[in-house]
Amino acid sequence: METIVRGLYSRVTRKTVDEVELHDPDLPRNVQPEKLVKELEGKRVTDVRRRGKYVLLEVAGNKLVTIHLRMTGKLLVCSRDEDTDYQRITFSFKEDGKLVMDDLRRLGTLDLLESEDEEPLSSLGIEPFTDSYEWEEFRELFETTQPLKLTLLDQNKITGLGNIYASEVLFRAKLSPLASGNEISETGKKRLFEVIPEVLSEAIEKNGTTFSNFRDSSGESGNFQDFLRIYQKEGKPCPDCGTEIVRTDQSGRGTYYCPSCQDKGKN
Ligand SMILES: [Zn+2]
């Protein structure tokens, strides 16, 4: 996500939106299609940033186009005469090029906001790399009987950790994804607090997530696979102790862990 946003920032910021084509009128959730187009055409993009899993395009007049890509959404920068297969909205720029939201399964969302104090951004949880990421607040999130993995995925508690990162973070912190916050020690929570930004920084360095339909803004794959130690490695030996890595399901999503290093009894 951070990779996508950095790529977009350098390619899109300071350009002026010449034309907005809404290929999918059902895309905007909180604004009429005509109003969306009218609000954005002729406006300069002043910033591109991230809040949790949302990409924010700020345009002159402090309007925020807030996009969530979900499963198959992509934001692609291409030349003006290029079309992509599953376009939902296109922002063509006066200077050159255009920004396309392409989305095979059409699960991505778009909202037009006046500020970050509005939904869906206002209810987002604490966020690594910002002032909101603070130990006292963090530990309170884990005063719960909810399994650790699910707390990590809850965007109202901590933003920016997807399914892949949650498994990797717990492996590096040597905590069982099945243990609840209440079952882990203070030092375990502290390890988790420290490991999260480390894992995210490493992931950014490795250029984001490369899984089949998740690309950076130029459509390039990164080398993120090298970074994964546990995710989708079931049956393979744990890189730390050699025990066979196990896969289980939590809320319908795959969790990968080493039953020895991440033994619930050792938390
Ligand atoms: Zn192990």
Radius of gyration: 20 Å
The percent range for strand residues is: 15-25%
CATH topology name of the largest domain = Helicase, Ruva Protein, domain 3
Number of strands: 10
Tell me the span between the first and last alpha carbons: 30 Å
Based on secondary structure, the structural category is alpha+beta
Query: What is the share of helical residues?
Result: 10-25%
Descriptive report:
- The protein has 267 residues and is an alpha+beta fold.
- The protein has two domains: 2-113, N-terminal domain of MutM-like DNA repair proteins (Alpha-Beta Barrel); 135-266, Helicase, Ruva Protein, domain 3 (Orthogonal Bundle).
- It is built from six helices and ten strands.
- The protein has helices at residues 2-12, 33-40, 135-141, 148-153, 163-172, 186-205; strands spanning 17-22, 45-51, 54-59, 63-68, 73-78, 87-93, 98-103, 109-113, 246-250, 253-257.
- The strands form three sheets. The protein has a four-stranded antiparallel β-sheet with strand order 1-6-7-5, covered by helices on one side.
- Helix 5 crosses helix 6 (186-205).
- The longest helix is centred in the last third of the chain and has 20 residues, at 186-205.
